[in-house]
Structure formats: C-alpha cells, structure tokens
Design brief:
It is a single chain. The chain is α+β, with helices and mostly antiparallel strands and about 120 residues long. It has two domains: about 50 residues, no CATH class; about 55 residues, Arc Repressor Mutant, subunit A (Orthogonal Bundle). About 50% of the residues lie in helices and about 15% in strands. The chain is built from four helices and five strands; from the N terminus they run H-E-E-H-E-H-H-E-E. The strands form two sheets. It has a three-stranded antiparallel beta sheet. It has a two-stranded antiparallel sheet with strand order 1-2. A hairpin with a 2-residue loop joins strand 4 and strand 5. The longest helix has 24 residues.
Amino acid sequence: MTRSEKQLKAVSKQLRSLLQKVEKLAGLTAMEKPVKVIPRTRGKRIVKKSVPGKAAAAKSTILDSVYNAVKASKRGINISNIKKRAGLETRQLSNALHKLTKKGLIKAASRGIYIKA
C-alpha cells in the first residue's frame, strides 16, 4: 500500500467519525440517514438519497393537477381552463390529457371538453 493510499484511508476514517459526531449533535434518527454513495462499474458513482418519512406520492404531478381540474368541474372543462388552472404549456397538457384518457380516468365529452370517467 502506498503512502497516499494510507493517507486517504486515514482521512476517510476521520471523516466518518466526524460525520457520526455531527449526526449525534443534529439528533438524526435511524430514519433520517444521510446521502449514500454507491460505487458503480466504470468508475462512475450513483448517489442514492433517502427521503426521511415521506412517501413518493406526496408530490403533486402534472397528471394530478390536470385530473383535479377535470374532476372539479361537473359539466366538463375545456382545454383553455385546464391550462389556466394547472399552469401548463400546451404540449404538457396534451400529453397529460392523452395519458389520463388511456388510463380511463377522464374522457372527452366533445372536442376540447373533458369530463371525469
């Protein structure tokens, strides 16, 4: 083992112990782990993040915002009103409407008017 490898290992060990002390001071629980670096082939690294106590479904997606706008209207809603409520570009809205109709969550009442299925 070369001198530089030994020095790197010593620094790594010191950093781990320092990290443990910081976690202890911050009061991190077992659920709130820091970012973990996982080695990958070809020397690349993937950073795996752990989210403390939050589900992935908590985020509001484009599909959710479009579906909620359609669901809120009783007699149907046109494209321009969905665009205003969801705050989307034309292409994003078009893709979201297509996906929601394919999933069977909404249907087209007439051209440009969508209702909950």
